[in-house]
Structures are given as structure tokens and as C-alpha cells.
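Morning!

This is the sequence you dropped in the shared folder:
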Amino acid sequence: QHKDKTGKRTMSHLLIRVRALPARMLPLRRTSSLALSRAPYASSSSASSSLASGRNYLEFYIDGEYHRVQGSSPQNATAAAASGSETTSSPRFGVESTLLEYVRDGPAQGKSVKLVCGEGACGACSVQATQWDHATGKLLTGVVNACTMPLAAADGCSIRTAAGLRVPPSSQSTGSAETSLPPSGSKAVPGPNAVQRRLSVAHGSQCGYCTPGIATTLDMFLRQNPNATMHQIEESLDGNLCRCTGYRPLLDAAKTFASDFDESMLGQMSSELRALLREPLEELPAPPAALSKWSDPEHARLAIRGRNIDWYRPTSYAELLSLVERFPDARIFSGHTEGIIEQRQQLRHYPVQISPRWVNEVHVLEQGTTLLDGRPALVIGSAVRLAQLQEYTKDSDRQSSFPALKAIAQQLRFFAGQQVRFVGSVGGNIATASPISDLNPVWVAADAEFELESRADGVRVVKARDFFQGYRKVNVRDGEILRSVRIPLQPAHTEEGTHNFFVGYKQARRRDDDIAIVTTSMRASVRPSETDSTRYVVADCGFGWGGMAPRTVPSLRVEQYLCGRQLPLSEEEQAEVERLLRDEDLAMPDDAPGGMVPYRRKLAVNFLRRFLWSVQYQLHRCTGGVVPDVDPRVVSALEVMERPVSRGTQHFRLAGEPTDAEGSNPPAAYYPHRHMAADRQADGMAEYTTDIPYPPNTVHGALLTSSRPHARIHSIDASEALAMEGVHGFYSAKDIPGNNQIGPVFRDEELFASETVLAHGFPIGIVVADTAHQARLATAKIKVEYEDLPAILTMDDAIAKESFYRETIHELDTTRGSRNRYDNPAVDHRDLEEVFAECEHVLEGEVRNGGQEHFYLEPQATLCVPGEGGEMMVYSSTQNPTHTQSVVADLLGVPKHEVVARVRRLGGGFGGKESRSFYVSGAAAVAARALNRPVRLVLDRDVDMSTSGGRHPFLSRYRVGFNGQGVLQAVDIKLHNDAGYSQDLSFSVMDRALFHCENAYRVPHLRALGRGLRTNLTTNTAYRGFGGPQGMLVAETYVDRVAHHLGLEADEVRERNFYQEGDVTPYGQQLRDVRLQEVWCRLKEDAQVQERREAVREHNARHRYRKRGLAAIPTKFGMSFTAKHMNQAGALVHVYTDGSVLVSHGGTEMGQGLNTKVCQVVAHALQVPLEQVRCVEAATDKVPNTSPTAASVGSDINGAAALDACRKLLARMEPIRRRHPELRTLAALASRCYMERVSLSATGFYATPDIGYDWAEGGEKRDPFYYYVYGAAASEVEVCALTGDHEVLRSDVVMEVGNSINPALDIGQVEGAFIQGYGWNTLEELVRDPRTGQLISRGPGSYKVPSFASVPQQFNVTLLSDNPNHQPTVLRSKGIGEPPFFMGSSVFFAIRNAIADARREAGRTNYFLLDSPATCERILTAVEQD
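The structure's back. C-alpha cells below.
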């Protein structure tokens, strides 16, 4: 806050760093409930006296238990702030804390509330909050994000977590006869309630980290809306994210509670779910009666002091004014949804904070008050919650009467998630003056008035279009607060024949819970002409725009031009009004902040077109045809795309028969058992690394990272940080007792930079303190002096400078003279150029695909506990315990036997925790050894995304030769991946890209060169598919290009080039058991590809701007680690005398159901019911020298190792069994074996046979893969050619998975991988600062993964039946985690086909470039480009 040249007080306080950002920089988050005012007032003595009596303690309830937090002593932060100092003591919990911190780390130890993003954009921390609503005099209940709720805001609340939803055992279902797992919870332990059970039995929990938040949100909605429809239930989850499931099973479970749900909708995997349908939602204990105390203003009043913050909650308007007088720099926060982000992520300090929640005057919501000019208006108090306004405006009668209310409802529909809307306020959204606010354009277009008030000058009314004065600057004078908004209520139709129209439009990357790229509201009053009653003219109009300037702006020239003009406009008038909008009202420099300037310009013009068409369309109908109608082909583009209720089907056939000897029904293997931890995950009782209770003397860490892309470190001064109370140390490269070099293969990077930083975000050291927040504050106090060095920040720059990692340069070449040529009589080894010379057609092209953030919901986390001597126990969220052990041992300079790495489960991994978890555990271990105290390090989401890397971006160039029938004859490819500042696993990622650059097609002559690029960006790493999808995208692109060139359907070209049985790949592996044709034909039949393609043509002929596209894509995915030595696993199996079995194996459970499958294999082998088998955590002191859980072979190798151990045990027990045939159960047999001193513990081992690939010249090994998985997918989309928006109408996937050990888990992997692949190809765009390489999109507010509304409207998955693996894998099954990922590209190519149709209509028939991801910006650009 500061004063401008005129002396007016202005606001400029949020995301200041964005102001100077160049093109393509994005604000991180919308605002919804921030400062309502900041100014001095003259107070009344009575108000001051009341405030002095405010409580200095907090009271609230968590899951029914009373909690009290005492404020600090009067020597508080206010005095410190007045003197300009900032205290940095180390409080346990207080005003400075968030509700999430208190619930998780306070006395409640509530691990069911998860920390994921810290910015209220994922819903994992959702809790139910009930409090006294002073405005209505009733209890108010809703769902809130605990991560953005200050602990002080919880005063007077009853908080219910996912754990608090659990019910006593007597209330739980006993399940059906088919349920293999008993309900969780013993006689004394509560278990999941109805919502949690249905999510569990519907296979809606994979990694489980998101499940408690989803259950909490859904439970609250169902209790408040007992007659909700399926559509309403789907929309209620707009504030929650899941990265594993693909959402379909979660939606299936949720919709079973709907009033319009029909049991016939249940699919093949729903036998358990069917048994729960008649279970009601259990009654929960009523909120504590003591909440009524807060109806008393004397008790509700707060004046609580913290060590750094004083928090006030007045209960009258006079008190509010008095507080602002006392504290001129106070912040007034309503919902605080943005304030916490400022304080926690941007480390801003607001010493005095005021909550207006108990002040009635700012909660008014009433109709009828007049404006200054006498018109009726709706008065909206500045503290009115967005959810309250949404509920008011969505009433259909109100909307039909007053179009302005419909416009508000349109904008609120996609405004954040319900958790934010429940607490966020109207005034907070206004006062922050966000240039991309969804609501501020409504106020501007409506010509709304803002009522401001000061004690000195009284009431002042400011027009909305005069209120926003610059970036985050508003027209607020000293001593004023924003009291209310008055929006004119013009009737839809008047007796005089005037018709009023008002709409709101918004375009974002993702439709729900996303910040706008461009948002607008448009209003027009149209009346009959005074000279000709058959003509209608614009009497008045208003336009408000967000995302087109540093502030919300009107379009004055357009308004002036339109007023008095007849509708519809002539072509010349239309052209002129568009020019005025684009070139004058919304003129933008090419380098405007936010980037995407051409797209935003085009979007604004298209929104104006849509509005004028919409007005004409409605006028035609309400004037009886006096006004000409619009072209029928544009009608479909007048409204936003609406989603019907989504549906999905799953088809499979069980392999095998029940074989257990103890009568288990259903069988242990070949059956769709749910995830064995699903109940515990759903009710929040499953423990992750972030949930492990830590010892009392534990300290918390925060990383210090580089602010430069490439620089030499001159000095590091941590003295100011170390002087802060509660800070225990700062450790950098000089403090590492062992080897500072880390890395999964080459050890070519440092844990902490010793001399040079190689990227923005490169780790320099670790601060440890009493709390994690305190450690973060301390990192900001460390001064690092740099000497900048030249930096390479793009792939093009790296190629131009030949900045390659030499170790990653590999080449496939089937032609003569190749250094890795293989001899095979079936292959023609002629020179490639000779072949190209003989080709009838040759084309060249380029393929670019972006990176992808893993966005596992559980962040990188570790707890390192030092033991005796050199011992170190490392609890880590890692896919690779063995290498974690190795790296920590090297850093500490101790043998590996001194370090034990343990992991129970991961909250998602996707490859991101295969090698990039090392630096987290390593940093914490170094500090733990130095202090000889446990150190806990959990990365904040923005730090995690900035430092851990992701999927490799690729830049690929191809040349393809083919004949007139589309048969491929020669392909020459150069692949480049952005490895980043170290090699990590980039060479293996490139190898897999090379092995998949022909996908499912036989290419007789192929040369492919792969190079890893050295850049000064964060090191990229493993990601689901591991380079395969990047290679396959190239293949599908050149096949699509061939089809376009020849005028053929792409499917024809694909089918003419499919691999056949016995074909040889370019790397020399002969294909056996090729199921490609089978899955392709099944897909075309099930998905009715030909019939629907014709329907798409008919639709596109009827619609000008809503184009549909359909594409079918095959896949052939090789299964094995390409590094031969990693294809091994071990297991340890114990049989106890009661017949129970305990298994430890080398794999890690991260949601894919590995433990469940291994238990199924063991139960199947030992012929016992599944519930008798349990897997324990992965630990290096139980199974040593393990491979990472990756490459989709976790079940293959760990299941086979466990099976080997079982066979050893059975062999030992067999003599006893033969001597005692009466021993029919494992318990009886095990007891007998124990009495006869037979060991009941065995280790197992497995090494994948007959594989390996030798890149060396003359190498003989040509079989990198043990087998292949084949699949195919078809997707249909609808694209808006005015905005670039798209909707997935239907996706069908057919996969062959061998004999599926667990069809439910396999289908879950197919669906989850498909949606993740869809995100990579459409939504998930990584945005960097082009000057520094800093990742800008480093949280869910700016990086958009698919949401509940992203799932295809119809989503069908089929597993091919009667399909045992031809290789002797465990139970003849196949891996499935990665192969379906590329199937998501069927959406990408369907979008491409829709774009092509839109281009053809505009006369553009040439082939066009479309980089991945196909964002809305790229879609509209492709439609328009020549």
C-alpha cells in the first residue's frame, strides 16, 4: 500500500513479482477474499473499550474434542511492528499457524487431513467446518481448505476431518458374500462411513492421498443436498483433484447417492458396491451445543495476540472502524484464501489482521435499494461469501427476471472450487483488484456502484469502472472501507419494449477451478427505434474485461460506437467494432505480462462476436421474428460447452478358477479385489511418510535454492538466519562429511552447490528450525552473492550450441555401416539415402512436446533419524529405497549397512520419486548427522515443482518416405530431449524413445539418433512411459502426415503398416504373440469408429464453430527395464503358525496396487484366503539391493520373487503334508511344521531371463524387452473454434494385459494413465521465465492437471480376454502401469482432426503444426494460422 501522486491511498500487494514478468508469465492464483480496506479512522471510545475486552485465546472443536490455544503475552507483535522490527520466535501453535498445521501436528495428530499444495487448489486438506453465523443467527456448515484457513479463523468452529466421519463398527456394513476383505475396524476401532466405504469398494482409491479430502467434500454435499442429482454431485467436486484414478470410479461411487441413480448403471466391478446401495448415510454427532456461545457478541469478539501477528475480530461496525483507526496498516481479511498464500509462499508479514465476519453491516444481501440515480439495485455486502451470492443468483426465477444475476451466476459457476467459494468474499475479490478477476468485469459492465465509508467523510460512492486504477491499485482514500456493492437490476423485458441482455464469458486452461486467461461480462439494452418500430437499436451497453490489461477495464469506444446502432450490425459495422475493441479499447503490447497476446486479442474479439450473435438470436425470438435470426450453424457456439452426466463401462473376463484349499470365495488371484488398504485410505487412517509421528526433538528443514540459472557462488552469509530464535543450523556443501556427488547412474550432480549453481532452484543448502515455516523464513534471510555465467535455457539454443551429453547419444540404424547394425535375413540393410531416393513421396517435419509435472499429491518428504554410531534410519517417500540408502551412505561417508531406508506407501510417484527423492533424503540426513537430531523435510509444492524435474520435453525432426498407398518405406529421425543440468536418467529415457519411435508400425529402413541436451534448467527425470510416449508421438505424427498428404483416412495408413507376427523391430527384436490386430479390431467394433466418423462429418456440416473430431491410436509398449541389471527382485515370506502370512518385497506401493497383487500371488500359491496375507513396508534391512519400482514391471518381478519364496516354503512343507493328509489348512500345517522344526521363512529371487541390449558396435544382444503390451484407443472431441476450448465426448480403450491378476486394479491403471496422458497432451503446460528459466507454473493454481470435469463424458475400458502372456511371467500376467499412457494422445489427434475441419471451412487445407500440449491457445491459433 502506498500513496500515488494525488495523495490517494492505493493497493498493490499481491504477486508483485508478476508485474515485471515478460510474455507468458502468469499470475499464480485468482483472489477471492482479501483486504477490504486499509486506512485510519477516528474511533469511538465505546468501540475501543469493547475491543480491549476481546478474548486473548481461541476455542474450537476438532472431531468433537475441545481445543484451546492461548494468545501470547501483551509484549506482542503490534509493538514490534510499530518499531519496524519483526519477531521470529518459535511458537508451537498460535495466530501465526494454519488450521492444517494445528490439525496435523498439534494435539489432534490428524493425519487424515493432507498437505498437498498449500494454496487451496486441490482439496486434499478439506475439512467440514460448522460455526455460528452472526448474520443469519444460525449455524453455518461447509467445506473449507485447512491449508488456507488461519487457526484464528477456526475460533468458534467445530471442525470435522475425514477421521471424524468414521462410524462405530455396529454402523458399518458387513459387506456381501463376495467381499474378500472384511470391513476395516475391529470391535473397538471405528471404520469408514457410507461415503468412505463406497469410495473404497468402487475402487476409487489408488494411492489414497486425495481420498480423505474427496470423502469429506462429498459427505458434506450429500448431507446438505440429500436429493441431489448425479449432475449436481459431479459438479460438487470441483475443488478436489486426484492424480491416480482418472476420476471415473470416484464419480461412480459418488453418483450412487443421487436421487436419479439407477442400479442398472453399475458395471462389472460393482458387486460390493451394489451391496451397499441401500445403506443410508449415517447420522453424525450434532455440533457441540457450546457453539451457541458465539451468538453472544461479547464472547465472539477476539483480540488475540501472537508472537508475530495480532488478530482482531470486532462484532460491530463501530468496532471495525475503531480498529482501522488504531492500526492504519492493518489488513482486513474475510476468507483469507489469498492471505495465507501471501504469508506462507511469498513470506509476507502482516502484523495486524482484522476479520469482519461478525459485522452485520458488511453481510447485507438484499434487493430493492436504489442507486444514486434512483434505479433499483441488489446490495451486496463486502463480506458476503461467494457461495452465498452464488446460491442467491442461481435461482432460475431471479435469473429470468434480472439478466445481471444470471451473469453473476455464470461467472461464479467456474470461480474456484466450493471450498474457496464457501469462505471467499465479494469484497475481498474486489479489493485485491486482480486483473483476471471473474467478478470485477460484471461490476464494470453493469455500471455498479461501490459504497465506501469513512468516519471522517461519511459515505462516498464510486462507480466500478472508476474504482480500478492500475495493477492492484484501487480508488480508496484514507479512512475508507468498502462496505457494499450496488448492482443495477434491469428487468429482462420492459413494458416499453426494451430488452436487456447480460452475459459472462470466461476462458481458462481448464474449465473448472482455474484462473482466467480472458474473462468478460457484456450488457446491452435494446429498444425499438423511435422512427421505425420494426427496427431495434442499442439504447445502452456496458462491457467489462479481465485479462486484457493490468486492471479490469471497460471498452468505452465500443460502447460509444454501439449505442444508437441498429441490430444486427452490417459487415462494415461489425469489422469496425472489432477493430475498436482490438486496437483501441484493448490495445496490448506484444510483450504484455501474461503472454499469449495474439490469443487474448482474438479471444476478446470472438467473445464480442458471440455476444452480438446471442443478442440477435434472442431478439429474433422475443420480437416475433422482427429482428433477423442468426445463421443456424453458429447457434451452438453461443453458449459455453455443457457437460452431461459422465458414464463409464468396464469389460473383462476372469482368467483361471478358484484354487485355494480353504474355500475362499472369491478366489485370491484373477479377481477384481479392491486395493487392500482402500478402507484405511478412504477414512484417512493410512500412514504416509508425511504422517509418521516424529520424535519430540525433531527439527524441520527448508531448502535454500538458487535464484540464478547459472552462476558462480562468491559467498553465502547465513548469519542473520542463524540469529533467528528457533533456528538450529544451516548446512551446505562444506558440511557434507562424505561425497557431495549424487545421481542415479553417473553421479554428475552435487547435493549442494559447492562453487557453481546450474539452474534456478538448484539446492545450495538446508536450514533447520523448530518449525517448517520458521525454516522457510530463515532461508529468505540468507544472502548469496553470485557471479552470473552464460545460461542455456531452451532446446533450440542447446542444439545450436551443440550442448549435448555425450553419454546419451545413441543411434538406431537398420542400414549398412551402422555401428550397431544387426544381421537378419528378413531385413534389407541398404543405405538409407538410396531408399529415400526410390520413395514415391518424401516429407519432412518437426514435433515438439512439452514437459509434464508429476504432481504426485504427496510431496517429496523424508524423516531422517540418527541412531547409534553412524546409523541412520531414513523414512522416505521414494520409489527407490536401495538407491536412497546408497546416496545417504555416500553423503555421510558410512557403509550402506549403517543406513536403512524404509517406505510404507507413497501418495503417488509416477517416476518422480525414482531418482529425484535422493536429494531430499540426502539433505535431511546431512543435517540430522550434524545435529544428531531427527530432521523432517517436506517440500512445499512450489519448491517441489521447481527442484524435482518432470517429463522430458522433446524436440524431434523427421523425414519419412512412403509409396502411393501410404506404406512406410524409410524414416529418419533426430530426437532431442531436454535433460537439464545433469544426466539423471535422461539417457535411458532417450533409449526408450528410440525403441518406440516407430510405435506399432513396421518401418523397413529406419535411422534414429537421440541426443540429451545439457541446459541450465531443472534436471528432468523418469515419468510414466519413460520416453516411450515422446517417441510414439513422433511416429503417430508422421503417419498422420502421410495420410493427409495422400488424402487417406489415417486409420487406413495405420492398418497398412501394422506390425505382424514375426516382424523384426528396427533394433533387431523379433516380435512374438503380436496382439495388435486383435485389439485394433475390437476397438473399432466396440467404439463403432466408422459409424461415428460419419456422424462427426454430419455434425460438422451443421455447425460452423463447434467442430468434432475422432481419432483412433494404437500402442506397442516394451516391458522391461532397458538396463538389464535392473530386471531383478527379491522377497521375504514368513508363514506363522496361525496360518497368516507376512510378505516383504523390494517394490514400493504407490497406488498401483502392487502390494495387493503380491498378496494375491502369495495367497494363490499357498491356497489361502487373501485376508490371511499382508505386505509390510519396503525396507532395505529386509530385502537388499532392490530395483526401483518402475517400468511397469513391479508386479512381474516382485510377484515372481514372492512366488519363488512360496514355492520354497511349499517344498519344505510338502513332506509334512504327505505324512499328515488330515492337515487341511495352512494354520494346521504350519503348526505341525513348527513342531517338526521346519523353517517357515523363505527368501525369493527373480531375474527376468533372455533380455538385454548392447549399444556397442558389433553388440549381439537385441532383445531389450521381455514382452510387449498392445492397446488401442479412440476418442471423440468437440472443439470451439471461437475460443479453443474443447470437451472429450467419448473415449474407448482396449488393452491386452495377459491373464489379469486383478482386473479392477488393471482397469484403474488404464483409466488413470489415460487421463494423465490426456493431461500431457492438452492441459499441462509448464511455463518458465525466458530470462532465468524459473518455473512460473509451480502449483495447482497455475499448473492445471485434469479435474473431475475433464473425464470423458463416456469412458469405456475393455481388457482383452483369453489372453495369457506367451512368456512365463507370474500367473501369465502383464504389466499395465505405463502402456495406456499414450492412449491419451487419441484426444490430441481427435482435436487435430476437429481443427482440420474448422480450417477446411475457412479454406485452409494445408498441413498445420500443432505442438503438444494442445492448449486452448494452441487450438485457436491452429484454427486461424495460414
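Headline: The longest strand covers residues 1106-1119.

More detail when I'm at my desk.
O.
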